[in-house]
C-alpha cells in the first residue's frame, strides 16, 4: 500500500470553546479526488485549512506527503490552493495578477496556457475589479494551477460560475486527475461531487456522518419507487416499506430490482401504475438523511 497523499487521524479543531471539528479521519490517495461535503458550518473549511497548513490542529494527526503541514512549509511547493475568496488587487489586470502568482511558485509556470485553460485568455488585459464573480473564480483557479501542483485544494471552486463555466471547470479538473493530480474538494453542489469524486465524506456538526466511494454510499441507502393508484388499492408484499398518501404510493426499499419486479408483475394487466418512477438513492437523499439525522441504511 502506498503512502496516502493526505492522512487525517482524529482531527479536532477548536475556536475558543467551540469545537468546530470533532475527531475526523480520512485518507486521500495519489490521483484521487476526495470531496468533503456537509451542512453549513459543518467544519469543511476548517478541515481544509488545517490540511493546507494554514491552521494548527487542536489535536490529532495530519500528514500531507507524509509530513506535518503546519510544521513543514516545504510541502507548499507541491500544493495549489483555491481559496473561497482570492483577495486580489483590483487595479491589476488578469495577466499581471497571474504573472505575480506565477512568480511566487517554485516551478516554472505557463501563465498564458493556464489563463487559456480556465477560459480567461480573452480577458487578460481586463482589470480584476471589472471581472464578474464567475470570472474571478476562474482567476482563483488559474492561480491555484500555476506551478503545476501535485495536490490541489479546491474550496467551493464553481460557486458563482454559470453552467457552461462550471462544466468547463469540471472538464479541466478531470484532465488534471488524468495526469495524476490529487484533489481535495469542498462543494455545496452535490452534482459536482457526483461527477468528480472518487470518494467523499459528508460532514455534519464537526463529524463525518457518511463516507466512502460514491457507489457504495448510494448503495447503502434505500432506493425509491413512486406511483399513483386508486385509493384503497391493496399492494402486494414488498421487501421495502410503502407509504401511502391519498393516491400516491412511495416505497423505500433496500432491494429495488426485487420490489420493482413484484410491483410490475402484480400490476400487469390489472392496475395502472400512473407516474411510475424508480431510482436508486441519490446523493441528495443521503445528504437529506444526514441533515435530518435519520439515516436509514
Ligand atoms: N475564525 C473563527 N472563529 C470562530 N468560529 C469559527 C471561525 N471560523 C469558523 N468558525 C465556526 O466553526 C464552525 C465550522 O466552520 P467552517 O467554516 O469550517 O464550516 P463549513 O463546513 O466550511 O461551513 P460552510 O459550508 O457554511 O462554508 C462554524 O460553526 C463556524 O461558525
Plain-language structure description:
With 297 residues, this protein is α/β, with parallel strands linked by helices. The chain has two domains: 6-218, P-loop containing nucleotide triphosphate hydrolases (Rossmann fold), CATH 3.40.50.300; 222-280. The chain has nine helices and 13 strands. It has helices at 44-52, 94-103, 111-117, 133-145, 163-178, 190-196, 214-219, 256-267, 283-292; strands at 6-15, 18-28, 33-38, 59-64, 79-82, 151-155, 182-186, 199-204, 207-213, 223-228, 241-245, 248-253, 274-279. The strands form three sheets. Strands 5-6-7-3-8-9 form a six-stranded mixed beta sheet, with helices on both faces. The chain has a four-stranded antiparallel beta sheet with strand order 11-12-10-13, covered by helices on one side. Helix 3 (111-117) packs across helix 4 (133-145). The longest helix has 16 residues, at 163-178. The chain is elongated. The two termini are 30 Å apart. 35% of the residues are buried. The mean pLDDT is 91. Residues 15, 18, 20, 38, 40-46 line the site of adenosine-5'-triphosphate.
Amino acid at each position: 500500500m502506498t503512502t496516502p497523499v493526505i492522512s487525517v487521524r482524529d482531527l479536532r479543531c477548536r475556536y475558543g470553546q467551540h469545537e468546530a471539528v470533532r475527531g475526523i479521519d480520512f485518507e486521500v490517495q495519489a490521483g484521487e479526488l476526495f470531496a468533503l461535503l456537509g451542512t453549513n458550518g459543518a467544519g469543511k473549511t476548517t478541515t481544509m485549512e488545517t490540511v493546507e497548513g494554514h491552521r494548527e490542529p487542536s489535536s490529532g494527526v495530519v500528514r500531507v506527503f507524509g509530513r506535518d503541514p503546519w510544521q513543514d512549509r516545504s510541502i507548499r511547493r507541491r500544493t495549489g490552493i483555491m481559496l473561497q475568496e482570492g483577495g486580489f488587487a483590483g487595479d491589476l489586470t488578469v495577466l499581471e495578477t497571474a504573472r505575480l502568482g506565477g512568480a511566487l511558485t517554485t516551478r516554472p509556470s505557463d501563465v498564458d496556457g493556464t489563463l487559456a485553460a480556465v477560459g480567461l485568455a480573452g480577458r487578460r488585459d481586463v482589470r480584476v475589479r471589472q471581472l464578474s464573480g464567475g470570472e474571478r473564480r476562474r482567476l482563483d483557479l488559474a492561480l491555484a494551477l500555476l506551478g503545476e501542483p501535485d495536490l490541489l485544494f479546491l474550496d467551493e471552486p464553481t460557486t458563482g460560475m454559470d453552467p457552461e463555466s462550471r462544466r468547463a471547470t469540471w472538464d479541466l479538473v478531470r484532465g488534471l486527475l488524468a495526469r495524476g493530480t490529487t484533489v481535495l474538494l469542498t462543494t455545496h453542489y452535490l452534482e459536482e461531487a457526483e461527477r468528480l469524486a472518487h470518494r467523499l465524506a459528508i460532514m455534519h456538526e464537526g463529524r463525518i456522518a457518511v463516507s466512502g466511494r460514491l457507489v457504495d454510499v448510494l448503495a447503502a441507502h434505500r432506493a425509491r419507487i413512486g406511483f399513483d393508484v386508486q385509493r384503497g388499492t391493496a399492494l402486494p408484499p414488498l421487501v421495502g416499506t410503502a407509504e401511502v398518501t391519498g393516491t400516491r404510493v412511495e416505497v423505500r426499499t433496500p432491494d429495488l430490482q426485487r420490489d420493482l419486479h413484484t410491483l410490475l408483475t402484480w400490476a400487469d394487466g390489472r392496475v395502472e401504475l400512473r407516474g411510475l418512477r424508480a431510482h436508486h438513492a441519490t446523493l441528495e437523499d443521503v445528504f437529506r438523511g444526514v441533515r435530518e439525522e435519520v439515516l436509514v441504511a
